[in-house]
Amino acid sequence: MAFSSQSDGDDVLSEINVTPLVDVMLVLLVVFIVTAPLLNNAITVNLPKASATKLADSSTPVTISVNAEGNVYIDKQAVALAALEPELKSRYNSNPDQTYHLNSDESVKYGSVAKVMAAIERSGITKLAVITQAN
């Protein structure tokens, strides 16, 4: 009978088996690939196709300006604030498709510009651009 102090079959394996880890990761990858398109919250809509068109109004816009003193001008012609709304109504009635630009000095008080904007709104004008200076 031979006895040995070390047994050859009782060695402890100190390696990590990576195969189950790779299998789990591949399953998770497949699950994410399948579910990712389903997480889209957008509604599918078939949009109509149209060709590009030119703007119908090729005329120059009417410029409404407010200077630093609060004076109102329509195309470089001085207009009293009380006469602004009737003047704009007559211009709007003669050409409803006309576009308007609003210029105002930086130092003008907000109340003056608000009164001009209210007159523009009451006159029925909807095509208004507020012009600012780019930095």
UniProtKB/TrEMBL annotation:
GO annotation terms (biological process): protein transport
Subcellular location: Cell inner membrane; Cell membrane
One GO MF term attached to the UniProt entry: transmembrane transporter activity
Parts of the chain that traverse the membrane: 20-39
Key word Kinase present: no
CC terms in the record's Gene Ontology section: plasma membrane
UniProt keyword Magnesium, yes or no: no
Topology in the lipid bilayer: Single-pass type II membrane protein
UniProt KW keywords: Cell inner membrane, Cell membrane, Membrane, Protein transport, Transmembrane, Transmembrane helix, Transport
Domain of life: Bacteria
Main subcellular location of this protein, as a coarse class: membrane
Family matches, as PANTHER family: BIOPOLYMER TRANSPORT PROTEIN EXBD (PTHR30558:SF12), EXBD MEMBRANE COMPONENT OF PMF-DRIVEN MACROMOLECULE IMPORT SYSTEM (PTHR30558)
Record's subunit section: The accessory proteins ExbB and ExbD seem to form a complex with TonB.
Job of this protein: Involved in the TonB-dependent energy-dependent transport of various receptor-bound substrates.
Family: Belongs to the ExbD/TolR family.
Protein known as: Biopolymer transport protein ExbD/TolR
